[in-house]
Amino acid sequence: MICVPAFFLFFDKSAEYRFIIGAVVIITLMDEAKGTEKSQQFFLFLILGVVLIIVICGFCSIGGYYIRETLMPAGAKTRTALVQLFATVTPVRSLTIIPTTTKAYPVLTIPAVTPTLPTGTSLPSPSVTSTFSPPEWLDPPGGKIVFTCTVNEIQQICLINASGEDQKQLTESKVVHRDPALLPDGNSIIFSSNRDGKYQIYEMSTSGDGLVKLSKDAGNSYAPESSPNGNRIVFVRENGADQTIWVMKRDGTNSRPILSDGMSGNNPTWAPDNSRIAFTSSKNGSNQIYITNILGNNVRQVTKNISGINGGISWSSDGKWLVFSAGSEGDRDIYLIAVNGDDLQRLTDSGNNQDPFFSPDGRWITFSSTRDAKDEIYVMRSDGVQETRLTGSENSNWEPHWSR
C-alpha cells in the first residue's frame, strides 16, 4: 500500500503536491507499524527520516519557486530556455576583406608649351655648372702635384695638393707654359715656355715668383726634370725634326747631349739613384722605352713590341719599376713594367690615360685621363686601385708631376 504514494513522492515533478503525498506516506507507515515494539521503533526512525527529507525538499521547492518567479530573467522559465540564455556564443568571423576606400583625385593634364621665337632666333644653350668637389680621404696621399692647366685657351702652370685641395694658378701671362716639374725640395718648379719666342727651360718658386731662365741653347727645349739630388736637369732639345736628350747643371750651365751616337729620344726621367735615365725612342721603328747611364753609354731597351707608347714615364721610388702609357690614339692606358722588361701590368681600363708619375713614397701614381669627357688629373694606388679624380675645371688639365 505504501508503494503507490511513495511512487508519486519521488517521481511527481509538481512540487505543490509533495506535502500531501508525504503526509499520506507517513499515515500509511504509522498504520503499518502497529505491531511489536521493535517494529514500532524501526518505523519511528523511518518516519522521522522521511519527515526530514520532506522538510528539506519543501525548502528547496519554495526556494526554487521564489527564484523562478522573482529573480529568473524573462524567457528562462524552463531549463532549455535557461541553457540557451547563458550559453557562450562564439561569433563567426568573416574572411571577407573589406576594401579600403581610396579617394580619387582628378588627373591634371599639363599642356606642353612651345615657345614662339622670332624669325632667326633660337633658345639660349643652358650653362654648364661644375658640381665637382675635392675627394674625401681616409688615408690621403701627401705632397704636391704640379700640372699644365688651360686658362682662357692658354696653357698655364697650376699647383694642387695631392689630396685634391688648394688648387692655384701660378702663371698668368699670355704665352704658353707647359711641362712643369717640381724640384726635390718642393719649393721650386721648372717648366718650358715660349715667352721669348722659342721654348726654353725656366724656374720659379711654387708661389709663382722669382722667374729665372735656365736654358740658353738654340732650338726648342722642353720636358725638363730634375735629378733626385737636385744637381742636374735633364730635358729634350729639338732642332728641326731631331729630338735628343740633353743634361745641364741646375743653374743652366754646362748643357750637353747624353746619347753620344746621336740617338733620338723624348720624355726623359731620372732614376732614384741619380745615375740612370729612362726615355722613349723610335730608334728601331716603333716608340719604345730605353735606359741609359748618365754618360750616355750602355743603352738598354726595356719594352719590346708594345705599340702606342706615348707621353711621360716615371720610376718607382725603389728603382725597380717604370710606369708609362700605351695604346691607340685616344684610348691609351697606364702600364707598369719591371726595369728588366718583365712583368708587364695594365693598371687602367677606361678613357684616354697618359703622363703617369709616381709619388715620392711609391704608393701612388698620378696621371691625366679623359674618362670624364676632358683631361683631368687623377691619382690611384700603385696597383691600379682607388682611382680618384683631383681636378674639376671647365678646361683640360694634364702633364702632372709629383714632388719627390
Task: Provide tags for this entry.
alpha+beta; disordered N terminus; Neuraminidase; 33% strand; rod-shaped; four-stranded antiparallel sheet; 2 domains; 404 residues
Give structural notes.
- 17% of the residues lie in helices and 33% in strands.
- It folds into 2 domains: 3-78; 145-402, TolB, C-terminal domain (Neuraminidase), CATH 2.120.10.30.
- Helix 1 runs antiparallel to helix 2 and helix 2 packs antiparallel against helix 3.
- With 404 residues, it is α+β, with helices and mostly antiparallel strands.
- The longest helix has 35 residues, at 37-71.
- The model is unreliable at 1-16 and 73-129 (pLDDT under 50).
- The strands form 6 sheets. The protein has a 4-stranded antiparallel sheet, with no helix packed on it.
Question: Summed up, what is this model?
Answer:
With 404 residues, the protein is of the alpha+beta class. 17% of the residues lie in helices and 33% in strands.
> Superfamily at the CATH H level of the largest domain?
TolB, C-terminal domain
CATH class descriptor of the largest domain: Mainly Beta
CATH topology of the largest domain: Neuraminidase
The count of strands amounts to 24
Topology:
Blueprint: H1 3-11, H2 18-32, H3 37-71, H4 79-86, E1 144-151, E2 154-161, E3 168-169, E4 177-182, E5 188-196, E6 198-205, E7 212-213, E8 220-226, E9 232-239, E10 242-249, E11 256-257, E12 266-270, E13 276-281, E14 288-293, E15 300-301, E16 314-315, E17 321-328, E18 331-338, E19 345-346, E20 353-358, E21 364-369, E22 376-381, E23 388-389, E24 397-402
Antiparallel strand pairs: 1-2, 1-24, 2-3, 4-5, 5-6, 6-7, 8-9, 9-10, 10-11, 12-13, 13-14, 14-15, 16-17, 17-18, 18-19, 20-21, 21-22, 22-23
Helix pairs in contact: 1-2, 2-3
